[in-house]
Amino acid sequence: MKGSLLAAFAAGALFGVGLVISGMTNRFVVVGFLDVFGTWDPTLVFVMAGAVTVTAIAFRFVLRMPRPALGDAFRLPTNEIVDLRLLAGAAIFGVGWGLAGFCPGPVLVGAAAGLQDAWIFVPAMFAGSFLAGKVSAS
């Protein structure tokens, strides 16, 4: 348990540092990347290409292991259905990301770093998550 907690903290810290270095916590960099018909900033293409490359290679090796290094079994998603609910959620997420320039991981790192814009966005994100839970429960 203690090793798992330390590994989770280290992974989260590494992820947060990566978000800061890549510019993902700067909403103006993100909005500039999404503005393909305006003043497009292509720097995040390299961030995404690096992430996809590392993931594609690492998953080949990791999933050959009998179990995770710090767990009893791999827990992978089993649902392969693409339905209206999934597409609507993805669209809402994308529109929110495009309008605000933040998504959940980078905004939490930005809030921890004291970014004022992030502190405005975080309560709205939690309110949206709460409302989504209420809507899906009914």
- In terms of per-residue confidence, which ranges show pLDDT below 50 for 5 or more consecutive residues? none
Count every helix, treating DSSP H or I runs of 4 or more residues as helices: 6
Q: Give the CA-CA distance, first to last residue.
A: 36 Å
N to C succession of SSEs: HHHHHH
Describe the largest sheet.
Answer: none
Estimated structural class = mainly alpha
Mean pLDDT: 88
Strand tally, please?
A: 0
The level of helicity is: over 70%
Shape: globular
Beta-strand content:
under 5%
Rg over CA atoms: 17 Å
In short:
By secondary structure, this protein is mostly helical. It has helices at 2-22, 27-34, 43-62, 84-100, 104-112, 116-137.
Description:
- 70% of the residues lie in helices and 0% in strands.
- It is an all-alpha fold and 138 residues long.
- The radius of gyration is 17 Å and the shape is globular.
- The chain has six helices and no strands.
- The protein has helices at 2-22, 27-34, 43-62, 84-100, 104-112, 116-137.
- The relative contact order is 0.11.
